[in-house]
Design brief:
The chain is mostly helical and about 100 residues long. The protein has one domain. It has 5 helices and no strands. α2 packs antiparallel against α3 and α3 packs across α4. The chain is elongated and about 50 Å long.
Length: about 100
């Protein structure tokens, strides 16, 4: 595991301390890692869904990068307001899935 030092402004530190106290969290590092993991996963999914929307990547490949199922990726895609999953993307996904 790598080490990262981060300086927090006073407001962020106060919010962190408040939540830790109210939620009875004692391991600050573990809590910050959890928050960072959740934030990174959300940002990664935002980026990958945008790539799929712009036809720069297939949904299957995006799901593989995010380490989630294709169904979960398509759900994320839909929840972000992207409605189109076109025939070309389907063909690419099927071709990828049928490879040995």
């Amino acid at each position: 595991m790598g080490v990262l030092s981060v300086r927090l402004d006073k407001d962020t530190e106060k919010s962190l301390e408040y939540l830790m106290e109210k939620r009875k969290i004692v391991d600050k590092s573990a809590y910050i890692r959890k928050l960072l993991d959740e934030s990174l996963q959300k940002d990664l999914l935002d980026y990958l869904c945008s790539e799929v929307k712009n036809k720069k990547m297939s949904a299957w490949k995006a799901a593989e990068i995010a380490k989630i199922t294709l169904r979960a990726l398509l759900k994320e895609y839909y929840e972000r307001g992207y409605e189109s999953y076109d025939e070309k993307s389907l063909e690419e996904d099927l071709e990828f899935a049928m490879r040995d």
